[in-house]
Amino acid sequence: MELTKSEWETLFPFHLALNEQLAIVSVGPGLRKLLPQLTTGELFGERFALERPSTDINSIDVLKSLANTVIIIRVRDEPFSLRGQAVIKANGVTLAVSPWISSPEQLPHLGLQLRDFALHDPTPELLFMMQGTAKSLQESRELSYELHQRSTQLQLAMHEARTASLAKSQFLANVSHELRTPMTAILGYAEMLLDELQDSHQREYVAVIHNQGRRLLAIMDDVLDLSRIESGKLTVQFEYFTVNELLRDTEKYFRAEVGIKPLTFRIQCHANIPSRVHTHRASVMQILKHLISNAIKFTPNGEIVMTLEAIDSKQGRMLQIAVTDTGIGIDLEKRHDLFQAFMQADDSFTRTYGGAGLGLAISRRLARMLGGDIEVTSELNSGSTFSLTVDCITAQVESLPIERGEESDSSGGNTRFNYPNLPYSIYVAEDADINRTLIKKLLELAGATATFGCTGRAAVQDITAEQQSFDLIIMDIQMPEMDGCTATRLIREAGINTPIIALTANGQEEDRVACHNAGANCFLTKPIDREVLYGAIADQIEQYKELQATVAH
Fold first, then answer.
1. 125 occurs within a structural domain
2. Is there a single domain that holds both residue 402 and residue 521?
3. Nearest to 477 by CA among 436, 515, 513, 443
4. Cβ(453)–Cβ(462) under 8 Å?
5. What's residue 456's pLDDT?
6. How far is CA 143 from the centre of its chain?
7. The domain containing residue 219 runs over which residues?
8. In the 8-state DSSP scheme, what is residue 449?
9. What is the CA radius of gyration of the chain?
10. Structural domain count of the chain
11. Which of 97, 172, 285, 362 is the most exposed place for a label (fewest CB within 10 A)?
């Protein structure tokens, strides 16, 4: 039944009737009181805007489509809105609305009283409320479905990212293994040739092979490390070690390389250096290798000085290691590119000196992982100074054997290696033929007897056999049939406490932790450093003997 105009004004005093052209044809008395300036004939859009749903009212059909929806109409330039429903009529649409207020206390601010609201059947309001609730439920269901879809997509993306990350990690591990395994043989046999050859020219040729092999290995390590850093896979594990160990390793590493040029390599320590520091030793050593190698590369002659000093900074007490050279220097305009990956100060540097442009980029990232940084000062044709700071001053300051002003000199030279005496029975698990031959030769030169196994499974069988007894085990980690960590774990579960040295081409911290958790006593990386290998064998056997003697008493 169609309501008359009088009935509409009684039941809906705030109604608003529109014709097909969206012009106002009737206004309820309550709405007139609120908006006395409102006149018939005025277009709806000039005074009102649809706030919910947020839709432009450009035709009467839009309002008709909202007939079963609770709507909210904003009154332009007025501090209130209208809430209600659109009712379709033969000649247009009537909006049955009321001022949208949250409490009666708001009425005086609008110039209204309770009597301005008609006493009518609450059924329409109940219907409006139910329709609004149904709409809200529908919107909620749609939102819930959308959230579920997005959650599913996010989980899928995370799974794909984890899978890609795992695949990349596995790829890096395989690449590292495949590259380091042949480099072990190349560098190892070159070192032994240097000891055996008598002809100076032949020794010079082999020295070049050895040095260039180390250079190639450094580039491979840089590429792998940059990939690990960018993927968040490179981790550092802080440890205590003495500064003298760092000095000894640095001097030993660059002894031969410095000797190729007319250079002097000196190490100076200030008196305030602590005897022990706490940081990631391998990372510090890697940074120094980059800094000193660059100094050697860009210094035709003269000297390179590494200076160690404890300094105060905003972060606290820091260790500063400065590498100063008398080389070609760096132009001020070119310095901003130094720490960018694959960049050098000048393209001509690459043609003249070689290099992939990764060393300084990796060094700065490693330094910042250690709580420090790298800075550079330089003048063209006047040398450079690269200063590494590391947050590692944690031990009490003690005097070092190298006192202030005393220098450690290295002028290089191809001195012959002195092989130690290690008359032990050693089991070696190694799957690469060429590396087995190399390790056999290295152990024999030191007076040791070697027994070999090609797989982890064979190693477990040989070592757990009752008739077998070995002084030490060298366990390769990546082997067919059974990996070295699994083999180590099974050997320990069999009650065998023989020292085990884990030998792997994967030198990341997680690899070290995995080997330690499996029961290995020591962790070495390929290519094999014979001096480090001999030292590890002697140390592990000595520690085992001391432990056995303690248990016996």
1. no
2. no
3. 515
4. yes
5. 92
6. 35
7. 145-234
8. E
9. 40
10. 4
11. 285
